[in-house]
């Protein structure tokens, strides 16, 4: 089976840099226990204990206890360590890019049989993020980060530019805006956000990792991603896009002060704008990302996570039942939205979001537009050493900005570093 082949391909090593020494010993399938079930759930989402309490009240034989965790690499490393020690929780919130490392460690279960009934609740793009391009399913999508273009309506009018339908139109608008005022930029390129760049590569059709037979194939420098790198490299070289580090006080000031007119970001951006650009309230709107070819309609993902079930759990079926309820039941989805501030991955959850964020009160159809865009987002298979690839992205593109050198070469360096790490770790690679 393809799923078993994936295990063989991936089980050469755990994720070296992420959790050194935490390789799995190849655990045997743990039989299901009978009687009342108690499940432990590790998550960093806020107020998840309140949501679990609603489940517990209605399901006295399956009690879920929530343990609040830190997010990011720290959470992933902690889970891998616990899996090796046999103390992993039954359920864990897992970022999509971390799932391959969990599969490599044989730390999460293939739950295809348990969740196949809810497959129709999710778009193909988001579902592909939990299958890793195989016949297996290693998590149930919880939230997603479809990307769109956020833009200042008043400043687009001031500078006489239209919403760009294609990236060529975006480039032309960037030059127009900066020619009129050298302190103003249409948008920016970030060498600090590999997840942002990955989302744009997904939109272009990039395939950074894939499984070919018994081996991994790495394609970070494929033609689609080269197109993205060349595009931003040209704009950066011409000095017509902002290249300062995002999330800094200076970047916040530029965003708030109308010096950055648009931001290619994800569905969670309203919270950032509310905090970092309060003066823009009621002046921003959203549109689909510009397309690489006229008539296309694609987006990509920046961020998002799934709920995975530990391979060592004694209660996989019960855990899958809770995960399915949490991420597809109308009442649970409403709670995820209101209590955990989550943009649901499930289609019926997205349909519940009808009132625009307060910051976007000027755009009553904000969530309707976001839902339409979410349906166009295509992801890709992440690999077992995303952390290495992301670190290489920051190093290579930081240097390219500093040295005003080729973005294509930077992409090549990122690709080479990723391949070298996989070879060193013992993964079989296709030529």
From TrEMBL:
InterPro entries listed in its UniProt record: Bact_solute-bd_prot1, SBP
Signal peptide: 1-19
Lineage summary: Bacteria, Bacillati, Actinomycetota, Actinomycetes, Micromonosporales
Coiled-coil annotated residue ranges, if any: none
Matching CDD domains: PBP2_TMBP_like
Keywords, sorted A to Z: Cell membrane, Lipoprotein, Membrane, Palmitate, Signal
PROSITE patterns: PROKAR_LIPOPROTEIN
The name this protein goes by in its record: ABC transporter substrate-binding protein
């Amino acid at each position: 089976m393809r799923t078993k082949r994936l295990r063989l391909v991936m089980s050469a090593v755990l994720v070296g840099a992420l959790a050194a020494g935490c390789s799995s010993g190849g655990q045997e399938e743990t039989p299901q226990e009978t009687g009342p079930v108690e499940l432990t759930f590790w998550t960093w989402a806020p107020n998840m204990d309140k949501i679990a309490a609603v489940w517990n009240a209605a399901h006295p034989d399956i009690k879920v206890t929530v343990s609040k965790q830190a997010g990011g690499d720290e959470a992933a490393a902690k889970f891998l360590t616990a899996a090796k020690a046999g103390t992993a929780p039954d359920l864990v919130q897992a970022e999509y890019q971390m799932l391959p490392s969990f599969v490599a460690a044989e730390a999460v279960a293939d739950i295809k049989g348990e969740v196949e009934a809810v497959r129709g609740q999710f778009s193909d793009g988001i579902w592909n993020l939990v299958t890793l391009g195989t016949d297996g399913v290693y998590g149930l999508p919880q939230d997603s980060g479809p990307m769109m273009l956020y833009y200042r309506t008043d400043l687009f009018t001031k500078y006489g530019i239209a919403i760009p339908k294609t990236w060529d139109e975006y480039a032309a608008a960037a030059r127009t805006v900066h020619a009129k005022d050298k302190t103003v930029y249409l948008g920016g390129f970030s060498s600090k956000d590999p997840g942002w760049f990955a989302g744009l590569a997904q939109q272009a059709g990039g395939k950074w990792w894939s499984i070919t037979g018994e081996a991994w194939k790495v394609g970070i420098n494929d033609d689609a991603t080269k197109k993205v790198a060349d595009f931003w490299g040209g704009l950066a070289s011409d000095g017509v896009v902002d290249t300062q580090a995002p999330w800094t006080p200076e970047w916040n000031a530029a965003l708030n002060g109308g010096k950055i007119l648009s931001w290619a970001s994800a569905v969670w951006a309203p919270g950032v704008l509310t905090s970092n650009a309060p003066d823009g309230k009621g002046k921003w709107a959203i549109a689909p990302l510009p397309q690489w070819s006229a008539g296309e309609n694609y987006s990509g993902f920046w961020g998002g996570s799934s709920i995975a079930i530990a391979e060592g759990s004694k209660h996989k079926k019960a855990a899958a039942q809770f995960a399915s309820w949490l991420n597809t039941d109308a009442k649970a989805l409403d709670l995820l939205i209101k209590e955990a501030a989550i943009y649901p991955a499930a289609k019926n959850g997205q349909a519940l979001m009808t009132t625009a964020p307060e910051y976007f009160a000027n755009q009553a159809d904000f969530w309707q537009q976001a839902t339409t865009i979410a349906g166009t987002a295509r992801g890709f298979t992440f690999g077992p050493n995303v952390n290495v690839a992301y670190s290489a992205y920051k190093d290579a593109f930081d240097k390219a900005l500093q040295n005003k050198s080729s973005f294509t070469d930077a992409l090549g360096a990122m690709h080479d570093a990723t391949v070298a790490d996989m070879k060193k770790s013992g993964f079989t690679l296709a030529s």
